[in-house]
Write a structure and sequence with these properties.
mainly alpha
Length: 71
């Protein structure tokens, strides 16, 4: 159940990061929060989060049954 919740959260956050408009950041020294926001706020990071979320959901969608068992 935890994987499903994590997968849904990753998909939602990834879509939000992918669709968010980037604002111009003035040149100069950056703080730690601004660096983290730049890493996780881009469209590539959003796409990776959506793919990771789909991976979490897909990992809960199948069950392996051995050859000597009935499913």
């Amino acid at each position: 159940m935890l994987r499903v919740v994590i997968g849904i959260i990753l998909i939602l956050v990834g879509i939000q990061a992918f669709l968010r408009r980037r604002q111009a950041v003035p040149a100069g020294p950056r703080g730690q929060a601004e660096i983290i926001a730049a890493l996780f706020g881009g469209p590539l990071a959003g796409l990776l989060m959506v793919l990771a979320g789909l991976g979490f959901l897909a990992s809960t969608s199948f069950l392996l049954i051995s050859a000597d068992k009935v499913g």
